[in-house]
Amino acid sequence: MIRAAAILALLLSACAQMPWEDGPAGASVSEALKNAPKLGPVDGVFPSMPTMQGDLIGIEGQSIGGVNVIGGPHGLLIEVTVEAGGLAPGWHGLHLHQVGDCSDVGEFKRSGGHLGMIEGGHGLLNPVGPEAGDLPNIWAAGDGSAGMETFTPLADIASLADDDGVALIIHEARDDHLSQPIGGAGGRVACSVLR
């Protein structure tokens, strides 16, 4: 109700501020709305944001953590948590893959290639890329636990929620963000189907 009232107030305010009779020829309501102030949390307006979650499965098929994705107006906020013993200590590549399928436990090849794959374009540092599925690396502590929150403007919830879904994959080694096709990140050691 508050949101509807805020939108109505915005529309009325935009219409009241438009110089319909004195303004340039061809002025339209869409132009007025485009130039109207945008409301946000400071104004008490909190947008409804779509989310996706998934259980993170390790190389032996056990649950090792979870993934939470929030779709925002300019991209995705991604949170990954890994329990102790879930990963080998050190850096690991992290990517969004084209297909939401982790059923081939231990390989996770059914998840396909990277989301938005570009021939020769893998890597956040690549001048030809990056691909929509490219993400920063995740670091696992000495006990194999890890946690990270990252943001990507390269994808949105609509691109994740297509017919075959999407998977988040963790690789065995660090992604150098340049080498083709996966930054030298090696095998797939964890997988999460996002729904």
What's the SSE blueprint?
Layout lengths: L1 H16 L11 H7 L15 E8 L4 E10 L2 E8 L7 E3 L1 E4 L40 E3 L5 E7 L4 H4 L5 E6 L16 E7 L1
Antiparallel strand pairs: 1-2, 1-9, 2-3, 3-7, 4-6, 5-8, 8-9
Helix pairs in contact: 1-2
Description of the molecule:
The protein has 195 residues and is α+β, with helices and mostly antiparallel strands. It folds into 2 domains: 2-43, no CATH class; 51-194, Superoxide dismutase, copper/zinc binding domain (Immunoglobulin-like, Sandwich), CATH 2.60.40. The protein has helices at residues 2-17, 29-35, 157-160, and strands spanning 51-58, 63-72, 75-82, 90-92, 94-97, 138-140, 146-152, 166-171, 188-194. Helix 1 crosses helix 2. It starts with a helix and ends with a strand. Mean pLDDT is 85; it is low at 1-24.
Summary keywords:
195 residues, alpha+beta, two-stranded antiparallel ribbon, disordered N terminus
CATH superfamily of the largest domain: Superoxide dismutase, copper/zinc binding domain
| Total number of helices | 3
The second-level CATH architecture of the largest domain is Sandwich
DSSP strand tally:
9
| Overall domain count | 2
Strand order across the largest sheet:
5-8-9-1-2-3-7
Any idea of the CATH class of the largest domain? Mainly Beta
Strand content: 25-35%
Can I get a quick summary?
With 195 residues, this protein is an alpha+beta fold. The protein is 14% helix and 29% strand.
